[in-house]
Amino acid sequence: MARYAMVIDTTKCVGCMDCVVACKTENNVPEGFNRDWIAYETIGKFPILHMEIRSERCNHCDNPPCVYTCPTGASHISEIGGIVLVDYDKCIGCKACIAACPYDARFIHPDGYATKCTFCEHRVVEGLDPACVATCPTHCMYFGDLEDPNSEVSKLLQSRKYHVLQPETGTKPQIFYLI
Amino acid sequence: MNELVITRHNEMIDPHLSIWGWEIPVYLFLGGLVAGMMIISGYFILTGRTKNTLCSCFRIPVIGIVAISLGMFALFLDLEHKLYVWNLYINFKWQSPMSWGAWILIFIYPILILGILIRIPDEIGQRFPKLLDLSNKLRNKQQFVKLLGALSMIFGGLLGAYTAVLLSAFSARPAWNSPMLWTLFLASGLSSAAALVHLIGKDPAERHMLAKADNGFLIAELIIIILMIIGFVSSSKVHIDAARLILSGPFTAVFWVFVVFIGIIIPFIIQILSVNNKIPHTNVAPILVMIGGLILRFIVVYAGQYSHWSRNVFTGY
Ligand code: SF4
Ligand code: SF4
């Protein structure tokens, strides 16, 4: 089975937010909400500071607490490459998955169900990249199958240094940030 | 320095989680209260107090059904996708504390109803003689009554523990993520229940005993609070930050004044005096205990939503 993942090159990201706009348009994300966003993290001691700009979203974790905590099975791991999805017709809007996500990647859609990034599953099944990846003007985002050693994402992770967000939470995020 | 700025501002998520308002603390309080009442009632039944017609164990199930129904209604109000609520009861997800809770609540009802049936209120008995017959028959079946007492204690314990496990299972929220939270909620549920039964009790000996028991629960609560704080401050940075919420942060004053001082210490002193016959039993202490228990649930639910893995809880970064 495929294991879809995203690799984001933080040395190329300029924080232009095209990925944010692309996602909102592609997925009809309601006003006032975002499925993806930009994080600017500054670390160090003045004057020696290091800044990382990165595009963040649901990490489609391999060990997803949002799925485990969901009382109805609405949150689930899809057979399509391990993407974490929500079945809106099963969701009761209890918000347990929102509390369980250490990345605050989810929110309640104005219609009442929990929602978040889907890795643009509807595009992926047609062989397309997620909208954010396809739009990025600096080409800093890559999408692919980690089970395939010849995929671009696998090769990047073999050749470059990377980090994931809050690995200490044990969620095994599947979005990798190249540094 | 480590400064994190994000462009996201989702409702109920940023600047800190605010998904759960008054409904959840009220539900957790009522759940804990009913749990404590079931344990007390089960204990009364198992120790043969059903021979005393004044025993509170006959009134507890009636109040319990009302309280748990109000709690479930509060929980229902909190749901954002209400019309789909039935999905809870066509699934059982063993990894989900919320799923366990939904099913435990279902088992609570028959136990409470049987608890009412073993001595139905006189007015109802006069109107429905067949029900009175059934009630008398059930009460005389010793094995059955004992089994009911045991089930009441077991499910009361499960319900009381579950109300906390629901929160402590969220490792993403450090202030909830304590293995001791369930003992705190259970002790607090028991003390609130002892207080309520003390308030409604008609038998002076029973009221005296409950005041004594309540003092034990209050002391247990205080010790658990101290141990929990020690557990947090000797843990990782995010847990130390979580402890700061009640040690030097936004919840400090309300926690120490309302939960510890007004909800535990003052009623403890009043009840020590009354059980030693220095002052008569009053309703003040039990009412304070229940207020403290309710405010505890509010603080825990809100503090947990404040605490975070990647952002400092005070500055938002
Ligand atoms: S990032 Fe959050 S919502 Fe996404 S899979 Fe991980 S825990 Fe679930
Ligand atoms: S809000 Fe919906 S998806 Fe999230 S845990 Fe509750 S039922 Fe599951």
Descriptive account of the structure:
The complex is a heterodimer of chains A (179) and B (317). Chain A is α+β, with helices and mostly antiparallel strands. Chain A has one domain (4-178): Alpha-Beta Plaits (2-Layer Sandwich). Chain A has helices spanning 18-27, 65-69, 96-100, 121-124, 131-135, 152-159; strands at 4-9, 37-45, 48-56, 75-77, 84-86, 107-108, 114-115, 141-145, 162-163, 175-178. In chain A, the strands form four sheets. Chain A has a four-stranded mixed beta sheet with strand order 8-1-10-9. A two-stranded antiparallel sheet of chain A has the order 2-3. In chain A, a hairpin with a 6-residue loop joins strand 4 and strand 5. Chain A is globular, with a radius of gyration of 16 Å. The mean pLDDT of chain A is 96. With 317 residues, chain B is mostly helical. Chain B is 68% helix and 2% strand. Chain B has one domain: Up-down Bundle (Formate dehydrogenase/DMSO reductase fold). Chain B is globular and about 75 Å long. Strand 2 of chain A pairs antiparallel with strand 1 of chain B, so a sheet runs across the interface. The structure holds iron/sulfur cluster (2 copies). One iron/sulfur cluster is lined by residues 58-61, 64-66, 84, 101, 103, 105-106, 116, 171 of chain A.
Write the topology of this structure.
The complex is a heterodimer of chains A (179) and B (317).
Chain A: E1 4-9, H1 18-27, E2 37-45, E3 48-56, H2 65-69, E4 75-77, E5 84-86, H3 96-100, E6 107-108, E7 114-115, H4 121-124, H5 131-135, E8 141-145, H6 152-159, E9 162-163, E10 175-178
Chain B: E1 2-6, H1 23-46, H2 60-78, H3 97-117, H4 122-127, H5 129-140, H6 142-168, H7 181-200, H8 204-233, H9 237-247, H10 252-275, H11 284-306
Bound molecules: iron/sulfur cluster (2 copies).
Q: Tags for this entry?
A:
heterodimer, A: 179 residues, alpha+beta, Alpha-Beta Plaits, four-stranded mixed β-sheet, two-stranded antiparallel ribbon, 10 strands, globular, B: 317 residues, mainly alpha, Formate dehydrogenase/DMSO reductase fold, disordered C terminus, binds iron/sulfur cluster
